[in-house]
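Ticket reopened. Same input as before:
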Amino acid sequence: MKADPKSVLTGVYYIDGDVAAGYGALAAGCKFVAGYPITPSTEAFEAVCHRGPKVGTVFIQMEDELGSISAILGAAWSGAKTMTITSGPGYSLMQDAIGFGAMLETPFVLLNIQRGGPSTGVPTKTGQADMMQSRWGSHGDYEVIAIAPDSPQEMFDYTVKAFNLAEKYRCPVMIMSDECVGHMTEKVVIPEAEKIDVEPRRLFTGKAADYRPFSPGPDLVPKMAKAGEGLNLYITGVVHNENGHPVADEKYKSACIRRLVDKIRINKDKIIELKEEGIDGADVIVVSYGISSRVAVKGVEMARQKGIKVGTLRLVTVWPFPDDRINELAMKTKAFVVPEINYGQVVYDVARCAHGHASVVLVPHGGAGVHNPADVADAIEFAVNQEKPMEGVHEFKTRLEKSVFEGGFKLKE
Amino acid sequence: MATQRINTNSEIHPMENLLRMDRMPHIWCPTCGIGLAVTAFASALEKANIDPNNVSIVSGIGCTGRVAGYVKVDSFHTTHGRPIAFATGIKVASPKTKVVVFSGDGDLIAIGGNHFIHAARRNIDMLVVCVNNFIYAMTGGQVAPTTPLAAYATTSPYGCVEPPFNIPYLADSSGAVYVARYTALHIRRLTNALTEALNKKGFSVVEVISPCGMYYSRINRLGDGLEMMKFYHDNVEIRHGEDTKNLEIGFQTKIICGKFVDRERPSYMERYNQWLSEVRDSGKRPKGKKGA
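Engineering reply: fixed in the latest deploy. New output:
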């Protein structure tokens, strides 16, 4: 299906990533957005408030983030494609309902413009420290899809894609952007509606009596319905059987939850998107995502000037994680270098998949800024000079860390 | 047009078509009043002549949170405290739906208190049925924001030290257009109030005082369900139009019931549609920071 021309703001713009994501949502057919202002995501919500009413998208500013995400789940069950927008503290507040949405197999998109944390952190500056929260933040077992765009253009493109994935797999899709990409202003080309593919809701079309809300198809995804069609839906966050009725039996628990995780796991090859460059014959592969992948480009260039064979692997989708691909590359390369704006999150998944066949070097950053490309270059050089694969995850000492810490935790003035 | 669902055939349960009979027996304890509130609601749905296919019922967590699962309409059993926010999403995205939130005092007034007052302020078109049993019963009898001062609960073993919320006053002052309170004993009056509220535009609140024979009554030595009903019979005073300020409930004091608020105020959807037509049709220019 193609996008509705009424909701696509075709043209060439000079806008920031937040606004581009807002326009992406409208183009994808998002008809309901609930939000709560929080830096640095607010501009995305404002963009929807500006353009939404003109293109038939309803928005409501709720009383808190708990309300925003609950409202979009309600709207999704009345048939709308929905999104909410937040950052750090708001994202933490939403975790309960994210699990609820996953449990109800509700398609929705959550735009998280990551900022420095924990707690209030540095609200106005960047971070990538919610990555594991996006994967494991709500209680219980469930799977989500997480995407990390690295430019305003990608904020538009991958917001559209996020909606499509949400509809296809009926799961929460997180756009795990960050303050840098959100506030970065670049050229964004919004194509004509006929060039934008949108996934329609997979609605049940048979007889009401035959409807089993959680009876899956071959790809493990059930057909959805909406309120007000005489189906007497029974939708609950309690573990349920195919009819949606609560059951507490361990067999049903397994059947219900197993499918929530497996519908993503068995389809992961169709979901995962990676951008690889110079991988063949590379001695070191830089694995990165979001703004860190933009910064890493410079570091890779510097390392190449020293004659090191470096490849790059960009995680466009971070979750589900490309286990097989990392494992395959671990057999061929000497090391992975992982720059991320946290003290080690996605790097542990790289190490898990490297299985000790290649060194894994973390280039950490505490947030409120981005990496110095020279650190990435030095980490590459360090990694390539190891005789044999190092154990576990090796944390590279960056210039920033060395300059501010004088041993232990005493901050140099 | 509404389909008649109440059964007149004496061989089967009269509510057969409005309740999910395949879900019976329900989980509520003997002497609990929630079932009476559900019966009153089902009758009201019929009396209000509303097409059940167009009704969504949303509950939160707790004993009353299970109501959504027993009424044969589109039912949503949501997370703790969030049914009003979830219902707001349904209503705003699908304005033709008749939205009913059916939940308990803890769910709506404690953890969900913020959504309650803001939905009232917006005057979102929905009926909120708040079953108030003065206690957190599903978890075994903990103190609630409605527990009367000095009453006992497992987390107030020396008596409750906090004053309770007066739910009708909270609803009234936050902007609800219809506010009534009855006990589970006043089944006819309750049914009539629910019928009236179902046909009211805007945010309506009906508080149902319900006996909790298993926890509230037991820990406070109030006797069995019949004795609690007798207490309601002897201590309820019907005072329609009473100022909601005067509706506080003390421990085993008189309970004032009736219809307290019934006023007109533009509902959220009325305002929204008016606003939308201005924005869309008159080419109104947005102010503030531009999108692009």
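Chain B has a mean pLDDT of 94. The longest helix of chain B spans residues 34-47. Please confirm and we'll close it.
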